[in-house]
Design goal:
CATH class: Alpha Beta
Distance between the termini: 20 Å
CATH architecture: 3-Layer(aba) Sandwich
Number of domains: 1
Strand order of the largest sheet: 1-10-9-6-2-3-5
Largest sheet: 7 strands, parallel
Number of helices: 8
CATH topology: Rossmann fold
Oligomer: single chain
Helix content: 25-40%
Radius of gyration: 17 Å
Shape: globular
Number of strands: 10
Bound molecules: 2-amino-2-deoxy-6-O-phosphono-alpha-D-glucopyranose
Length: about 240
């Protein structure tokens, strides 16, 4: 794993954007793996700005999101589809049919999981995956205990994850209890991974990621076995 140390959130976003833009320019047909949460918001802002100023084109880019809440339609303001549209997808020249987020309001979530995994395979997988990390070590919505062998699947969210994400909802009760998420194996198949870690609330997660045991109780630990992972971490996350 390569670690890039930066001062703060803005510098993290800037560095991540430089890397993304370089990759997109070198491979205009790149398959991007996208994440939600606060960590990549600054990156997406920079990508939109760059698109407007320098006209980096996304015409042939395909995007695949990590996860979606079960029970929320893409029009729901708290759905990850909505979040992605607002933060990035509506603001660059992506062909909407090339953007993929698991469907959260489907009648058959189990079938949606196999369909999504199939979609990833049909398109040759993700070239560059962006990740954030939950304080409990989750990546995507792969909570502690998720099998390292998992493909896209349904997950029950832990109380701590629902509490952490309640800030986007009006109350904790509104936070869905389940989600569809790409599995650990699905994530590990990406050719390259960029993990963004910012803020002192992520200090423990980062040190466990770097120094803890590699096991399913801390899902992100598997990233230590991936051949091409870059972490961009700010001073607050790195601690003293
Ligand atoms: C959510 C998402 C994850 C994200 C995590 C951390 O649970 N499913 O993909 O990495 O939150 O979020 P944040 O970046 O806001 O700390």
């Amino acid at each position: 794993m390569k670690i890039i140390k930066v001062k703060n959130y803005d510098e993290m976003s800037q560095k991540a954007a430089e890397m993304f833009i370089g990759k997109i320019r070198r491979n205009p047909e790149i398959n991007l793996g996208l994440a939600t949460g606060g960590s990549p918001v600054g990156l997406y802002k920079q990508l939109v700005q760059d698109h407007q100023t320098n006209h980096t084109s996304y015409k042939k880019v395909k995007t695949f999101n990590l996860d979606e809440y079960i029970g929320l339609s893409g029009e729901h303001p708290n759905s990850y589809r909505y979040f992605m549209n607002e933060q990035l997808l509506n603001h660059v020249d992506l062909n909407k049919s090339n953007t993929h987020v698991p469907l959260g309001d489907t009648e058959n979530p189990g079938q949606q999981c196999s369909h999504y995994e199939q979609l990833l395979k049909e398109h040759g997988g993700v070239d560059l995956q962006i990740l954030g990390i939950g304080s409990n070590g989750h990546i995507g919505f792969n909570e502690p205990g998720t099998s390292f062998q998992s493909e896209t699947h349904i997950i029950e969210l832990t109380p701590s994850t629902r509490e952490a994400n309640a800030r986007f909802f009006t109350s904790l009760e509104e936070v869905p209890t389940h989600a569809i998420t790409m599995g650990i194996t699905s994530i590990m198949r990406s050719k390259e991974i960029l993990l963004l870690i910012s803020g002192d609330s992520k200090q423990d997660a980062l040190s466990q990621l770097l120094q803890g045991a590699i096991n399913e109780n801390f899902p992100a630990s598997i990233l230590r076995t991936h051949p091409c992972v870059t972490i961009i971490a700010d001073e607050a996350a790195l601690g003293k």
